């Protein structure tokens, strides 16, 4: 059975790298829509992770690698996300919907000793997948009826592979380090077309931006947890910082005129004439980030935490111009509740219930409006029949409902419902047999 899990883990990684992910029109800017950077359990709690140390032995925390003092089992996680986006803009009273289902996370974690724990993870970090066409009808001074068209198209996924190690200094303090590798290709295209009295122009004017990304950095984490043995109450404080950026993003920009060899499918350039072409290299794709969290709870019963995340603004080349992003921050609050893990007569008393909310000031600012985001989340961990407090394996379910953007100045309002499902298979592997 364990061999099957390993083969599934490798196959899932290949599928994750090849999949195409749908997202918001705001993905046209920068590196696209950034996805969540952890497991379903933390996403279901509003994203709190910096001060979250699981009470159970089967959950590995990648967001803050210091928070794995209780992790003792080998764990395999497979998770998928279903995104449902509903867009609205006051421009021509336009409405649209977009749905996408994709593999969002695979992870393998295991203890190296009683103090040292290690985890490997692979997930999409950001993506572009949009195709927007805007047309404008104009009557010229000589009576000619002109139709101008703008097409915006983007594709590609930026993936991340992570390796995390945690070290337990003593009963209260722990530290951890995560190495992050980002890699992928992102593509943007803006085409301008025109027709006069129903006769299309011979040439299309196209602006292409191709980004080839390879980025490496580190996330350093620390945590402190104090447990009162008389009351089982505990206080947790955690902090992380992401630094050491060694990026290599090569951006190729081309401004040209051309025709399509296959007009119906709009593929295959012909008669291309280059107007401008250049290549640039960026070193600050993923800037400095920091996080601070505080949590309080009762051992094996409930937990509540608050967290603030900060990310420094970066800049990126977009259609031949440098686009600046503002500093962003995110405030999250959430927790979990377990009624009674010893009650084997009532299954739902052994279910872990999660809840959370967040507000995010986005790094994108258009027409004087920050593209902000907020939402609420909830989830459950349904334990397998054989699960116990020392082997908490089960089915993870999560939901996130929220809003992003605004309809002011003809911008786009995005309402979203994200559904997540995953499995956590945990067991004590690599044990020596006492008897043959």
Compact summary:
The chain is mainly beta and 436 residues long.
What does it look like?
With 436 residues, the protein is mainly β. 5% of the residues lie in helices and 62% in strands. The protein has helices spanning 2-18, 40-43; strands at residues 33-34, 74-89, 94-111, 116-139, 145-168, 173-196, 199-200, 204-227, 233-262, 267-282, 289-298, 302-311, 315-318, 321-324, 328-337, 352-361, 365-366, 369-370, 373-383, 394-405, 412-427. The protein has a 14-stranded antiparallel barrel. The chain has a two-stranded antiparallel sheet with strand order 13-14. Strand 8 and strand 9 form a beta hairpin. The longest helix is centred in the N-terminal third of the chain and has 17 residues, at 2-18. The chain is elongated and about 90 Å long. Residues 1-16 have low confidence and may be disordered.
List strands and helices in order, with pairings.
Layout: H1 2-18, E1 33-34, H2 40-43, E2 74-89, E3 94-111, E4 116-139, E5 145-168, E6 173-196, E7 199-200, E8 204-227, E9 233-262, E10 267-282, E11 289-298, E12 302-311, E13 315-318, E14 321-324, E15 328-337, E16 352-361, E17 365-366, E18 369-370, E19 373-383, E20 394-405, E21 412-427
Antiparallel strand pairs: 1-4, 2-3, 2-21, 3-4, 4-5, 5-6, 6-7, 6-8, 8-9, 9-10, 9-11, 11-12, 12-15, 13-14, 15-16, 16-19, 17-18, 19-20, 20-21
């Amino acid at each position: 059975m364990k061999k099957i899990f390993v083969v599934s883990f490798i196959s899932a990684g290949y599928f994750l790298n090849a999949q195409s992910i749908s997202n918001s029109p705001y993905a046209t800017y920068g590196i696209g829509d950034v996805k969540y950077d952890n497991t379903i359990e933390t996403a279901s709690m509003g994203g709190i992770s910096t001060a979250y140390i699981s009470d159970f032995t089967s959950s590995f925390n990648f967001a803050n690698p210091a928070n794995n003092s209780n992790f003792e089992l080998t764990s395999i996680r497979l998770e998928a996300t279903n995104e449902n986006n509903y867009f609205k803009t006051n421009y021509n009273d336009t409405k649209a919907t977009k749905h996408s289902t994709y593999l969002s996370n695979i992870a393998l974690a295991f203890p190296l000793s009683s103090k040292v724990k290690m985890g490997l993870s692979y997930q999409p970090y950001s993506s572009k997948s949009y195709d927007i066409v805007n047309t404008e009808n104009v009557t010229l001074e000589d009576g000619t009826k002109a139709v101008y068209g703008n097409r915006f198209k983007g594709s590609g996924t930026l993936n991340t592979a992570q390796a995390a190690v945690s070290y337990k200094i003593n009963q209260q303090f722990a530290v951890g380090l995560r190495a992050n590798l980002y890699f992928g290709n992102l593509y943007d295209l803006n085409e301008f077309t025109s027709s006069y009295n129903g006769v299309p122009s011979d040439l299309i004017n196209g602006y292409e931006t191709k980004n080839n990304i390879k980025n490496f950095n580190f996330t350093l984490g620390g945590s402190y947890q104090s447990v009162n043995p008389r009351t089982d109450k505990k206080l947790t404080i955690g902090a992380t910082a992401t630094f050491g950026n060694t990026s290599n993003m090569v951006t190729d920009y081309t401004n040209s005129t051309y025709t399509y060899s296959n007009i119906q499918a709009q593929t295959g350039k012909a008669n291309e004439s280059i107007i401008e072409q250049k290549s640039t290299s960026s070193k600050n794709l993923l800037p400095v980030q920091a996080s601070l969290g505080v949590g309080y709870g009762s051992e094996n019963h409930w937990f509540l935490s608050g967290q603030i995340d900060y990310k420094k603004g970066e800049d990126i080349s977009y259609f031949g111009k440098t686009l600046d992003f503002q500093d962003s921050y995110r405030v999250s609050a959430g927790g979990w509740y377990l009624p009674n893990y010893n009650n084997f007569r009532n299954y739902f008393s052994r279910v872990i219930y999660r809840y959370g909310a967040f507000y995010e000031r986005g790094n994108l600012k258009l027409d004087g409006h920050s593209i902000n985001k907020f939402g609420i989340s909830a989830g459950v961990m349904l334990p397998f029949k054989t699960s116990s407090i020392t082997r908490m394996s089960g089915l993870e379910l999560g939901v996130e409902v929220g809003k992003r953007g605004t309809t002011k100045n003809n911008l786009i309002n995005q309402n979203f419902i994200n559904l997540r499902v995953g499995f956590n298979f945990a067991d004590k592997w690599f044990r020596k047999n006492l008897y043959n």
